[in-house]
Write a structure and sequence with these properties.
Number of strands: 13
Radius of gyration: 21 Å
Oligomer: single chain
Length: 351
């Protein structure tokens, strides 16, 4: 089919468009099954200052065969930096559809005078890597994906670690407990410790705090929130560390690690490991068969901890960027931050 016969139109928010978007994504990435409910929640709770656009490639017969997205990031916002993504349905590859979508997307976002475009590609997706590299994108950093099969989980070598942290005067509590104890204050406290941790996550872009009200609405209403799997370390009333598990509507027996982090004042005391162990206790007790997490490939300390816990390495995800304005080409994370830290666990080494 001649790609000129395709209609490129904006995503219209209909159930049919959501279904097509989810179907294409799940077909291309069967290891990360997503639902329309999850996508609708994210779309409905975006910070209005953040640009987001989605384009659909539609055949004359009405079949959606490709999707392209461009958006600002709430965690590393810059008006001239956008994340871009192009997905083409299997069976339609090699027909120029991805090129048409990408070129259209580039033209659409030109009004932002973009200085940097970012995207992510799994290392074993060779065709996708060629596509972005042929368009000038360069690799900035990698993250290992690691999986823990809960049937193989044996925390015996870490016995007593959470108790030792609590014996030092700290407390480990679930988010459920904190929401009940402090219904008016937990949100801001969690927001602050999350941002403190995120600021040290390895990234090719500087961290920015999202809008609090938007963050809270998106957080509370998430269909994947696990308040009892969300662990918080406290020093008196102060939140000093977190380790979070999230569910997946598309993979009901799989939990995802969101972030494990400890504030700079409380690192190197074993807090991150204690929090992670408590989170895994929750996963084991609640029937999750697998936990997924991601770690920067250079963080041997955290990788060693995860492998000791039983996590097994999977293909890495590559962060690519197209630098259009050298002034926006920030250095990679371990150069940005004086002490190398990890995208999952901020306290390195742990314990």
């Amino acid at each position: 089919m001649n790609t000129l016969d395709l209609a490129l139109r904006p995503f219209n928010g209909s159930d049919a468009d959501y279904a097509a978007r989810v179907e294409i994504g799940n077909e291309l990435f069967p290891d990360y099954v997503e639902t329309a409910e999850e996508m609708k929640h994210d779309d409905a709770n975006r910070d209005p200052k953040l640009h987001h656009e989605r384009w659909m490639a539609e055949t004359p017969a009405g079949e959606i065969v490709g999707v392209a997205t461009a958006e600002h990031s709430s965690w590393s916002y810059h008006p001239r930096k956008l994340f871009v993504d192009v997905n083409v349905r299997k069976g339609w590859h090699g027909k120029g559809i991805g090129t048409r979508l990408y070129d259209h997307l580039r033209g659409s976002i030109e009004r932002f005078e973009p200085g940097k475009l970012s995207t992510g590609v799994r290392e074993d997706y060779a065709a996708s890597r060629r596509f972005v590299e042929q368009r000038g994108f360069v690799e900035l950093m990698r993250e290992w994906e690691n999986h823990l099969a809960m049937k193989e989980y044996d925390p015996s070598s870490f016995a007593g670690k959470p108790e030792a942290v609590e014996a030092s005067g700290l407390r480990i509590a679930t988010l459920s407990a904190l929401m009940a104890e402090d219904p008016d204050g937990w949100g801001r406290r969690l927001f602050d410790v999350s941002n403190a941790a995120a600021a040290d996550i390895p990234s090719a872009d500087a961290h920015t705090d999202p809008d609090f009200e938007t963050w809270l609405k998106r957080f509370i209403g998430s269909p994947n929130l696990l308040p009892d799997g969300y662990m918080v370390a406290l020093d008196g009333p102060e939140y000093v560390g977190i380790s979070t598990l999230w569910s997946s509507q598309g993979e009901p027996n799989v939990a995802y690690t969101g972030i494990t982090g400890v504030t700079r004042t409380h690192r190197r005391r074993g807090i991150a490991l204690a929090l992670k162990l408590r989170a895994l206790e929750y996963a084991a007790a609640n029937g999750y068969t697998k936990v997924k997490t991601w770690n920067n490939t250079g963080n041997q300390g955290m990788l060693a901890i995860n492998y000791a816990l039983g996590f097994k390495p999977q293909p890495a995800w590559i962060d690519y960027a197209l630098i259009l304005d050298p002034a926006l080409a920030e250095s990679t994370a371990w150069e940005n931050h004086g002490t190398f830290v990890d995208p999952e666990t901020i306290a390195v080494p742990v314990g």
